[in-house]
Amino acid sequence: MNTVPNHMPFSGYSDAYALPRIIRCEANLYLAQFAFMKLLPAKYIIEQALSRGELAPGMKVLETSSGTFALGLAVVCRELGLQLEIFTDPVMDKGLKNRLDSLGAEVFIVTEKAKQGGFQRSRLDALHGRMRQLGQSCFWPRQYETPDNPAAYKPFADQISEMVGADITLVGSVGSGGSTCGTIERLRQIAPGARLIGVDTFNSVIFGQPDGERKLRGLGNSLVPGNVKHKLYDEVHFIAAPLAFTATRSLHEQHAVFAGPTSGASYTVGRWRARQYPKETVVVICPDEGHRYVEAVYDQEWLKQNGCLHEGVLPDAPFSEEHPTTALPPWNRYRWNQKSREAVLNALEDDYNEPR
């Protein structure tokens, strides 16, 4: 009996690892485990730019990133023979920087934080300065704004639809907005009632929290990305770093899924949702594997030293708030109900301005 699958070899690393494995971990709970999810939009954005003539051999690709979008671009640029420059900040871990260096990317670390918009603003300022130097000989993928980012997730949505159906509850972390918005838009073309739950962290401005320090990286933002289409979200959950880190370890201990902390944050929400609504099919996006976090999230001493060890009993359910700006750690839920960000924030102002 021939047990070897009859598939052709992949043409390269980006083809082999662009889509995730779908893993069933409870009766109605599935995990979409990516090697690193940002490879999918990086590949699509670069290929589309080449096909449109916006990018050509000899031009430099410039981007601002402190995470795996930089790695995705580095892989694709290496495969296609393109030059890449990344503008980041001190939060980028040494392991990721080493991989970028090995793939031939130039990494510029911005050390001064802007008063408004934090490191993300100062990184953008540095990138814009470099673009002025290079003129027409560079290309900026603009992951936070380009419609090619959400469009890249059509194959992922089709993968979900083929495996478990399109009428699902999708749970995913929100950073650029590409993965959650692009996937749900495609799923709702097939099943208009498909539900979307966004997972953010405290001190992220995306859904109205005040900007501040964030120990949970890979989601959240100090700026509101253009690719976050707020009207697509049914619910938003805010997860604190210690809870996300504990959930990440629990995901590995209970299901052998080796993932990063954004996966742990989304898993917390997805598991709760699946148990609250057993007739729903819940799919949780796990954006990356855990290799970058072995000496951090998976290290008890690191958690203690960084004040990220969760104390006490893990909550079984979130607190629910009247407004996202008043949400408090460790876990809060807000029924967004497919409204615009302006409508949600204005509703709070209207409440304050009502006669007492």
Word description of this protein:
- With 356 residues, the protein is of the alpha/beta class.
- The chain folds into 2 domains: 13-37 and 148-340, Rossmann fold (3-Layer(aba) Sandwich); 39-139, Rossmann fold (3-Layer(aba) Sandwich).
- 38% of the residues lie in helices and 15% in strands.
- It is built from 12 helices and 12 strands.
- It has helices at residues 13-17, 39-52, 68-80, 94-102, 118-134, 148-151, 154-164, 178-190, 241-255, 261-276, 300-305, 341-353; strands at residues 21-26, 29-33, 60-64, 83-88, 106-109, 138-139, 169-173, 195-200, 235-239, 282-286, 319-320, 331-334.
- The strands form 2 sheets. It has an 8-stranded mixed beta sheet with strand order 1-2-10-7-8-9-12-11, sandwiched between helices. A 4-stranded parallel beta sheet has the order 5-4-3-6.
- Helix 2 (39-52) crosses helix 3 (68-80) and helix 7 packs across helix 8 (178-190).
- The longest helix has 17 residues, at 118-134.
- The radius of gyration is 20 Å and the shape is globular.
- The model has no long low-confidence stretch (mean pLDDT 93).
Attribute tags:
alpha/beta; Rossmann fold; 12 strands; 356 residues; 12 helices; 4-stranded parallel sheet; 8-stranded mixed sheet
At a glance:
The protein is an alpha/beta fold.
Mean pLDDT: 93
What would you report as the Rg, rounded to the nearest angstrom?
20 Å
Number of distinct beta strands:
12
Shape: globular
Q: Label the CATH architecture of the largest domain.
A: 3-Layer(aba) Sandwich
Structural class: alpha/beta
Structurally, how many domains make up the residues? 2
Detail the poorly predicted runs: none
Q: Helix fraction?
A: 25-40%
Main beta-sheet strand count, sense and barrel state: 8 strands, mixed
